[in-house]
Amino acid sequence: MTRLLCLAGFGLSLFCSIHCAAQLKADTAFVALADTRAKQVYAHYIQGQARLFNGVEYTEYASRNDEFPFFFSDDWLMGDVLYDGELYENVPLEYDIRVDQVVTEHMFNGAKIQLITDKVDHFSVSGHTFVHLYGTKTNGIATGFYDRLYDGPTKVYVKREKDLQESIESQVIVARFEEKNHLYIVKDGVFYPVKKKGSVLDVLKDRKSEVKSFLNKSKIRFKKDREKAVVRAAEFYDAPKN
User: Fold this and answer.
1) What is the arrangement of strands in the sheet containing 144-151, beginning at the earlier edge strand?
2) Phi first, then psi: what are they for 90, rounded to 5°?
3) Which of the two residues, 47 and 242, has the higher pLDDT score?
4) pLDDT in tens, 212-223
5) Distance CA 169, CA 159 (A)
6) Which of 156, 179, 202, 212 could form a disulfide with 150 if both were Cys (CB 3.0 to 4.6 A apart)?
């Protein structure tokens, strides 16, 4: 009886050993497969991201005081960019509006890379979408990036610029960036520059009295917030008549 129990115990032990070995082999194969798959996904990701870094190294502006040439902030802004036909989401971006260049950060060495302008279709940062537009004899604008404020049948864009101004104060050279924003209403494919309330009403002249009345009732102060006023005017103009 004792011998029989020993044989049974040995058989059970042998079975467990074989089962464990088979399970270990299966687990090892699964881990190897998962590791291979992870490497493939990572390689594909790196290959895709690498296309974003095929520009040239960005030449940093040497700030004298606290001035900076970028849109909104001198820190990285997380945004999206459609570059060379590929959409890159949640990547660090800076927009140097002084030279109209988009900059990103290299994911490995932290270098600032200036994207190839002709490969940038559009990019978005801080709630603003900048579209790469090309100037023609018809539209009458200069080629560059334009902030799209309203994208209806009638469109509103603004070209943002920064000009470096230097002056001498107390025998010290003081540098400042003067920001200029050029507003455009796009109607029937033509870009109309607008500066004052009257120029907006001239562009929307077929509903001039209605738009004027709307702006007055809305109590939108054109001088205080030109961009908001022009967008609201375009939205009203595009809305169906009551």
Assistant:
1) 56-57, 112-114, 101-105, 86-96, 77-83, 120-125, 128-133, 144-151, 155-169, 172-187, 190-194
2) 55, 50
3) 242
4) 999 999 888 888
5) 31
6) 156
Q: Cα–Cα–Cα angle for 211, 215, 218, nearest 5°? A: 135
Greatest extent of the chain over all pairs of C-alpha atoms, in Å: 111
CA separation for the pair 194, 68 (Å, rounded): 27
Q: How far apart are CA 206 and CA 194, in angstroms?
A: 16
Hey, how many other C-beta atoms are within 10 angstroms of the C-beta on 115? 22
Q: 29 pLDDT exceeds 70?
A: no
Predicted TM-score (pTM) of this structure: 0.78
* Residue 158, strand partner residues: 147, 183
Please give the Cα distance from 230 to 192 (Å, whole number): 12
Residue 112: how many CB atoms within 10 A of its CB? 17
Average pLDDT value for the chain: 84
User: Distance between CA 80 and CA 147 in Å, rounded?
Assistant: 14
User: Structural domain boundaries of the chain?
Assistant: 29-194, 195-242
> Comparing 30-34, 72-76, 189-193, which segment has the lowest mean pLDDT?
30-34
Tell me the per-residue pLDDT of 162-175, one tens digit each, with 9 for 90 and over: 998 887 877 777 78
Strands 144-151 and 101-105, sheet pairing: unpaired
